Amino acid sequence: MTTNGTIRVLLVDDHKSFLWGLGKLIDGERPRMEAVGAASNRADAFTLALEKRPDIILLDLDLGDNVKSLDFLPDLLREVDAHVIILTGVRERDVHDVAVERGARGVILKDESAEVILKAIEKVHGGEYWLDRAAAGRVIERSRAASQKKDAPAPDVIDELTPAELRVIEEVVREASSTSRQIADGLNMSVKTLNNHLTSVYSKLGVKNRLELFIYALKRGLAKLP
User: Does the pLDDT of residue 143 top 60, yes or no?
Assistant: First the structure.
C-alpha cells in the first residue's frame, strides 16, 4: 500500500508494448506514483496484486484467449484492498457500466491523453469515482431496477443480520467513497474481517457488491446518508 505518499499502481494488459509505455508514464511521475508491477494474464494479476499490494490496479477488459477481466474482477477485489480502473479500447457504455457494477472505480479509454490517465489515478486513489454524470446515473438506475425486480426478502432475512453486520452496512453507506481499509479502520477491525462480514451480508440480502448494498440499505432503511 501507499508508502511516503507514493501511489502504487499495478498494470494488467496483454499487450506488452502498451504495458511498457504505461509503466514509463507512471514511473515518470515519481515520487507521486510508481508502477509496482505488470501482468499480462489473470494468474499473474492475482499473484502480483497479492505480492505488491498496490493502491490502484489499471486493468484491461480483454486479456486475450477469451479471458475477460470482468469475469474475475469481483474475486480480485475480494483478495486485495485496491481500487480498480478499467483501461480499455471498448467504447460500449453497457460494458463500462457492468465494470462499475462489479466493483471498478472508473473506466478510461486507451486513447485518452496521458494527463487524463494520471488524473484518474489520483482521483480514484483519493476515494472518488472516475465517471461522468451520465455513466454514474446509469449505474445507479441499473442497480435500482435490478433490485426492484427481485422479490422483496422476508423480514426474517433482515432479522438474520448480526449487530456487527448492521454496523458494517451503516459504515459502508456513510463512507461510500472510502477504501476498504478506511472502512475497516473506522470499525476497528481488519480488512479481512470486514470482507468476511460483507460476504455474509451479500449472501443474506442477495446483493453482489458495495454499490448494490448501498442502494439496498437506503431503500430498506438499514442506513441513512450522513
Answer: no
